[in-house]
Write a structure and sequence with these properties.
With about 400 residues, the protein is mainly α. It is built from 15 helices and no strands. Helix 5 runs antiparallel to helix 13 and helix 10 packs antiparallel against helix 11. The two termini are about 30 Å apart.
Length: about 400
């Protein structure tokens, strides 16, 4: 489930390549885990081990800074998940429409069916969500392993220039970093999302263990297929997720035949389904925990008597996704990233505060290195987050607010 919440494949990286340049994309995929993904994975693991409760990150911030800031963190991240979840429905519909030339109504029908199926699975409970996620994750990992092997076996030369155009001064470098950093940060986000379901898991200490295992796995799944794809088929200016663009499926279809490209498209759709499936579970529990503290509409706290699932909250995710799923990918991600990053800053600050107030013996997992290291671990990604606000442009401020 953690793999699905954060990654489920390289989908979305295609949009970074022509904007930032192939070299800059690969550099960001290598650097961002250490200054963004890994720090948050460690912080989420530590806080999740000492406070494994329903609501996760919302409860951490609430304990550290009180109800007001807990409310902010809970609403920012939960609303961003409701919006973010729509991205995976949009991507799945886009992949299907580009492959089989679907009309707008056919594409919407596919998206609606996807929403209905996985809303039903989530109403049945977290166990069923986990089983479906596991099966889909194995399929996705094997498929991208094939992309990497194919690409490296047919390596033709350079992956392309560092940036999309010559960078003549410092401002140019910041422009190209800004062109891809929001997507890169989005690609390495989601490590905290499993924490909201901790109250429904028999042994919640598996969450920090799973988080630490998923960090290097996700790096490998992102970096190797991207380098192999760029080094084998090139055409970095044409990469993207729209009809007629180049992507990871072209590595398969070029070297293994058209049938393998069709199989990859089907796996692409299944991968978006796996992320969508797990984020319904995570997002719905955010509002469920807030409603339990009278900080969200009280109807969202209603649970199914048989499975204990907050079914009203689950259904609310599906309804929002149905409304938003016909919007363009770039419009939805603009609104999503601003709130997501803002809530992350509060979690980092909560980590620094709770380190001083929670006794060390209560921790089941604790980041080593002392106070200096933990401050560096939290302050560096906070600086990256603030920098990303200024690099991404005013549309992120306006859309997010």
């Amino acid at each position: 489930m953690i793999f699905c919440l954060v990654a489920a494949g390289c989908y979305g990286i295609e949009e970074m390549i022509p904007q930032a340049g192939p070299g800059m994309t690969v550099i960001m995929l290598i650097v961002l885990p250490f200054i963004w993904g890994l720090p948050f994975g460690l912080v989420a693991s530590e806080l999740g081990s000492v406070r494994p409760q329903e609501g996760g990150y919302y409860k951490w911030v609430q304990e550290a800074f009180g109800e007001f800031w807990g409310f902010q963190a809970g609403w920012w991240r939960t609303v961003s998940i409701y919006i973010d979840n729509t991205l995976y429905v949009i991507l799945a519909g886009g992949y299907a429409a580009s492959e089989w030339d679907l009309s707008a109504w056919q594409e919407f029908a596919l998206k609606a069916v996807m929403i209905l199926i996985f809303t039903y699975i989530n109403v049945r409970g977290v166990k069923d969500v986990g089983i479906v996620s596991t099966v889909l994750s194995v399929i996705v990992i094997l498929t991208f392993t094939m992309v990497a092997i194919c690409g490296f076996m047919h390596w033709t030369g350079s992956i392309g220039p560092i940036t999309a155009a010559p960078a003549e001064n410092l401002g140019d470098w910041f422009y190209y970093i800004g062109a891809g950093i929001s997507i890169g940060m989005w690609m390495y986000s989601g490590y905290e999302s499993m924490s909201t379901i901790a109250g429904e898991i028999e042994n919640p200490q598996v969450i920090p263990k799973g988080t630490l295992l998923s960090v290097p796995l996700i790096m490998i799944v992102y970096i190797l297929p991207t380098v192999a794809g760029l080094g084998s088929i090139g055409k970095w200016q044409l990469w993207g997720t729209e009809v007629g663009n180049v992507g990871y499926s072209d590595v398969m279809s070029t070297y293994l035949g058209p049938a393998s490209g069709v199989i990859f498209i089907i796996v692409s759709i299944l991968a978006q389904c796996s992320i969508y499936n797990t984020y319904i579970a995570s997002g719905s529990r955010g509002f469920f925990a807030l409603a339990g503290d009278n900080l969200a509409p009280p109807v969202l706290v209603k649970c199914d008597k048989k499975h204990g699932v907050p079914y009203v909250a689950v259904l609310s995710v599906g309804i929002v996704n149905l409304v938003l799923c016909m919007l363009p990918f770039d419009v939805v991600v603009v609104v999503d990233v601003f709130m997501l990053i803002s809530s992350y800053v509060l979690v980092y600050l909560a980590e620094l505060k709770l380190r001083k107030t929670i006794p060390p013996e209560e921790y089941k997992f604790r980041i080593g290195g002392g106070n200096v290291f933990i401050h560096i671990l939290c302050i560096v990604p906070i600086c990256v987050a603030v920098m990303s606000f200024f690099l991404n442009g005013s549309d992120y401020f306006i859309g997010g607010m």
